[in-house]
Amino acid sequence: MTVMGVTQILIYLAALVALAKPLGAYMARVYEGSPLWLEKAFGPIERLIYRLSGIDPRAEMAWRTYAAAMLLFNLAGMAVLYLLLRMQGRLPLNPQHMGAMRPDTAFNIAASFSTNTNWQNYSGEASLSYLTQMAGLTVHNFLSAATGMAILAALIRGLKRRLCATVGNFWFDLVRGTLYILLPLSLAFALFLVSQGVVQTFRPYARAALVEGGQPQTIALGPAASQIAIKQLGTNGGGFFNANSAHPFENPTPLSNFFEVLAILVISAALCHTLGEMVGDARQGWALLAAMMIVFVGLLAVCLWAEQAGNPRLAALGVDPRALEAEGGDPLWTQAGGNMEGKETRFGIANSVLWATATTAASNGSVNSMHDSYTPLGGLIPMLMMQLGEVIFGGVGSGLYGMLLFVIVTVFLAGLMVGRTPEYLGKKIGAYEMKMASLGILVPALLVLGGTALGVMNASALAGRANPGAHGLSEILYAFSSMANNNGSAFAGLDANRPFYNLLGGMAMLIGRYWVAIPTLAIAGSLARKRTVPQGPGTLPTHGPLFVCLLIAVVLIVGALTFLPALALGPIVEQLRMMGG
Amino acid sequence: MWQELKTQLKPALAMLAWMTLLLGIGYPLLMTGLAQALFHRQANGSLMREGERIIGSELIGQPFVGDGYFWGRPSATSPTPYNAAASTGSNLGPTNPALTEAVEKRIAALRAAEAGAASPVPVDLATASASGLDPDITPAAALYQAPRVARARGLSEEAVRRLIQDHGKPRTLGLFGEPRVNVLELNLALDKLAAGK
Amino acid sequence: MNGKITRPSLLDPRFLMAGMKESVKRLRPRDQVGNPVMFTVWVGSLLTTALFVQALFGHGEAPAGFIFAVAAWLWFTVLFANYATAAAEGRGKAQARALRAARQSIKARRLKEPRRDATAEEVDAEALRKGDIVLIEAGQAIPADGEIIEGIAYVDESAVTGESAPVIRESGGDRGGVTGGTRVLSDWIVVRVTVDPGESFLDRMIGLVEGARRQKTPNEIALSILLAALTIIFLAVCATLLPMSIYSVREAGAGKVATLTALVALFVCLAPTTIGGLLAAIGIAGMDRLLQANVLATSGRAVEAAGDVDTLLLDKTGTITLGNRQATEFIPAPGVDEKELADAAHLSSLADETPEGRSIVVLAKERFGLRGRDIQPLGARFLPFTAQTRMSGVDLGARTIRKGAADAIGAFVGAQGGRFPAEARVVVETIAKDGGTPLVVADGARVLGVIRLKDVLKGGIAERFAELRRMGIKTVMITGDNPLTAAAIAAEAGVDDFLAEATPEKKLELIRQCQTEGRLVAMTCDGTNYAPALAQADVAVAINDGAQAAKEAGNMVDLDSNPTKLVEIVRIGKQLLITRGALTTFSVANDVAKYFAIIPAVFASTYPQLGALNVMRLATPQSAILSAVIFNALIIIALIPLAIKGVRYRAVSAARLLRDNVLLYGVGGLIAPFLGIKLIDVLLTALRLA
Fold first, then answer.
1. Rounded distance between C-alpha atoms, residue C594 and residue C589, angstroms
2. What is the residue-wise DSSP string for A495-541?
3. A window 50-109, beta carbon within 8 A of B
4. What is the pTM of this model?
5. Percentage of chain C surpassing pLDDT 70?
6. What ipTM is given for this predicted complex?
7. How would you classify the pairing of strands C556-558 and C295-297?
């Protein structure tokens, strides 16, 4: 761990926390329907959309109606994307003449983008038309993110309301989340990215004569900046190019890197404060943010250590894995050192590791380095981050509502231990909430384990591995951890564009998303109907350090207990073998 | 639930249509317009030209193999290295024998070219980049190659070293990222220096 | 009903034997299927037993001895859990039997026919059923709620209503209802019983402690769901480990695939068997503890709700204060000797059977040694208290002694040309302000003075309220007194709030209002007129001496008729939850160590490098697996006493309670198995058992 590396990480964390409060408070206003100055610009569009769609944005919905609207909207979007992928060859804005996708590939992509997973079984620059990227993927980047945030808004209302049968209006939440949060941020961010060198053009790919001669270089281009802005802000992560944010046209400079990795976590972090604002007790939001932050920093430190230590097998061959900062007084003897396989020079170790941890903490899944080539321990961290259920920041909206499911389990245990029927923010947690929370936590874990087990028994799945042995198991485990938890990053050596992964993975993404979202809405509905118990001396405080520690313990223990055996056979044994030579 | 689904179907379809128009067409078009107007060069790939001829992008690495050029990061793109239409890393696992083999070969090639330089090889010269298009190498990696380049170009090591220093990029604001040297820029400058010699 | 029941010790050999028999009996699938955690262990035991049989025939996946050992300990795990439940039920049953036997009930004279002179038989009040006819004579308690069909009597209903003056009850009209637990002061009545009495309460309670009719409480259901979810996860973990193990063996080209025995062992160790095995025992033991405190509850739900109570409504009379007001002081009017006042008061009260009247006699005796006098020979005529006159007294020759409310006496002396002295009026007001009741005594036209009747607080009541406050419970006193009096008593008793001039409607409204605010309201009282309020309250403790209607409306009955018993009930309710929470935390925390024992062992042959995870340095893979399984079984036995006695509860803040319990059961649960498993491994190795 270098001084400069740690400094950059600290600046990052400080910026993240600093932005959480103003952005969080602003988002609370968006979902509460308070007046916003941005309404001057977007208000007419908002009203126009409601009118054209025949929607009364103030009509309150019971949770079932809310869920029905959410499901239908997502299903329709998924169907349209599927058709787009199948027919892109016959549609305009296709300068490279990309052909139709295979049905299983198209299904997987459609499931992937509508569930905010953005797992990519294809190479963007080699298979998608500009129209598909824009009208298909960019749209889903916005809408899947807005959907996640809407569900969270409904859950927060459930916590806040008392004796109320409704949890808000899905269309209102969807449109406002898009127009007042995601779109304005994306506009500004995309423009900044272009200034840094991210491409935004409809021109065909450029051809360059190489300096040293030989075959000319075809340079892929496209309207990338507009998609990258939202892919980071909306924790989508699907790259415009195959190498994702390691590609110099997606992430050209250290500055673009800093703001992209900030964009990955900023909304999820700020939503904690939105929760605090909306329930009228900011401490509740800070407590959740603190819990996320502690796990994040802890796992980040492990990953940083592992990657900076490098690969002893390469060191044995004569590479210099040391971090050098003007070694021997010579300013040119400088290098990041560590394990640079699959990492970019401009990012070095610290920024790669920070990104890897952040992108898997959030269910973003974009990468600026190749996780498959991480040291086993370094690669275990992103994998574990996903296996924890994408609740350490997590996807926009989905991360916090996932965390709240863990909060329900935690207050349940804690409540029992102080001898009271558990309650959170004054809402008693009963068997119904427990059932729904258990479902939400259980289902992704089962999908990961089940998918991996099927994968290691399936010949086609095994043929997709890029690496043998324990690492091959890690690739499959990572794939299902990523898909079932809607992350989308990969141990990318795995050739996942096979019917096995496309179909099973597509199902895992759909179930992993909606089988958590629907119980969450059910909890929202159930909580909204309850009374709010006033705070008293017998109430367990859910904002203190003790509760934060307990929450962390529950998240870590559930994650660790579920995945430790599989991890032992993958990264853990690989690390031990690597260390043992 | 069925009743709810029925009532929400029409709004769902209408909403999807209008949102696609706004976010899928309106937003990227607006962004492209703004980008082309405000940051024309960057928006189109930061391309470098010699007259009308495009000789590359300052952000995209190129393969260099001659002793007289600085070599960039090993690239795992296929079919050829630095294929800017198919970015990818090697995705080799840390204990994959294929990785050790590849690194061993690279080290052997470097050592052969550096005429028996025994010092350890800077790690970025022996390991493939994430994108396969990494335009940069570390200052250490450039310095490591300086003797070879100087010899091949008939320049003094000192001159080559100065060149590296001049084209080295420090951390942004002294804080962000890693110090690095853009290989394409360095090699173009090298060509210029050699030509003016 | 105060006799402590001796309960069987957990170590009593006879008790142990019965428990063991019962645990074996409960191996039937029918008894297991209700508890998903233990049911999966049961299936695992069957599976390993089958594997053992297979091994006996030479096709075993592991040495038969090893499989046998694992299978045996898995069966023990199920048996131990069964034993825990059986032990808790056994204690409950013993308790219930003792309770039935020891319960002294009111005797009643049941008539064959609805006439006073019909043949009668002596029966327990408990045996009375709706429609039975009983005869009650002066001095006897009314055994059950009913309706008078013959006779008229003065009835002391203070135990029920708190109203100290006796009331007339007679057949016909709207004064024909009598309440169980009240007492006939004069004459006799024949009553038709209108309700089936409290027997049902006892039966319901016995059902709860015996486990037969035990229904899961809401929190227990929620916990069961969590435990089921954990079980499913661990089932998936172990099931998916098999293909992963096959893959690993193939890739590594070394070792053997994980055996089913090892995977079942891993599953049983990970599944929350500790809490799963003890869950039923904890619930039963909680009800048992309640019964031990002489409280009958109709449902476990009510006991659990008691732990959540944050507002407690208490009836003043009979709960905070002793049932009846007592004379504490004679305050003579100017120019009157105190003894003269005492003497007049004494005379007027000799025939007064109301508690106040008796207390005046007692006070006069204490202060001035006045003896009981037979006043009949003096031609005395006693005038009882009536609602019209609102005074009582005695006519003794020419003397007309009266005592009563100030305004009534004022009217009385005024009618005889007398005057109510201003000094006496000041005294009257002062007494009222202090929370007492002034009783003015007059002899003819002359006001002699004032008797201070005072509510007497029950002993130790203030301490109880302090404790309730520490538990986070707000106390509200309910009284029919005026606000002035109520405030004084409230301050003296140390309650947080009071409701004065309460009517049944106001009480009901108060409860509803508290509930609307989201509070959980407990109420303890004895009066019939509280029945609607009791029914509305979340936790309603009726006093056993109280009215039958109250008992039916409430969800608990306190046999000791000790209104502050609620503190005990709350404590038991909390203890019940804490015990469950603590053992769940302990159970889950245990899993960490078990992983470190079993994972390296299962994969030792494939990946010897994983031996680095064997931090306990367990001797062999087999001893490691066996040690973990044995620890897992023994910990159930070790925790039975805790499950039955309950985790200690102290009235401290929630945060502190949580911290202490997390440290003890969470951190302790993390560490304990490391030591335990290592110890068992050392023993197994030393004894060459594995």
1. 10
2. ---SHHHHHHHHHHHHHHHHHHHHHHHHHHHHHHHS--PPP-TTSPP
3. 52-55, 64-65, 67-69, 71-73, 76-77, 80
4. 0.88
5. 86
6. 0.95
7. antiparallel
